[in-house]
Amino acid sequence: MANWFDYLALATTLFVIAAIVYGGILASKAISNAVQSTKENLKTRGVNLSKNGVAVKTNKRYDREDYLDATQRGFIKAMKASSAGNQAGEEQRNGTPPASEKSGYHLRSRKTQVVEK
Asked: Region (Disordered): which ranges (predicted)?
């Protein structure tokens, strides 16, 4: 036969287990709300998180001319960095300026093209 101490121990044990379960449920809800809030905040900034991955929204559209300008800048940087071509400001052995200076055109952005003649 069980005495009053056994009933008290059973009640205390059940109370502790219930408190742990309740705390787990509250923690789960808090984490879920934090994740949802973060997703909404990122969505307003243009980053959409989903099960399929991440989608980033951009406001700027690039046209063909923008891509060509970026490619041209990349080629010019690579040509300047190479040891096979003439370096900027260097003269060839016969004393004539490099071909880029002969034409009078200096490659810059498409909006500011300088012509020297």
From this structure: 80-117
Of all helices (H) and strands (E), which one includes residue 48?
A: strand 47-50
| pLDDT tens digits along 47-95 | 888 888 888 887 777 788 888 998 999 998 988 887 665 555 555 555 5
Task: Single out the residue of 106, 109, 90, 107 nearest to residue 98, CA to CA.
Answer: 90
Helix (H, G, I), strand (E, B) or coil at 79: helix
β pairing state of 53-56 and 105-106: unpaired
> Does the model's pTM come out above 0.70?
no
Q: Which residues pair with 114 in a beta bridge?
A: 106
Coil/strand/helix, residue 109: coil
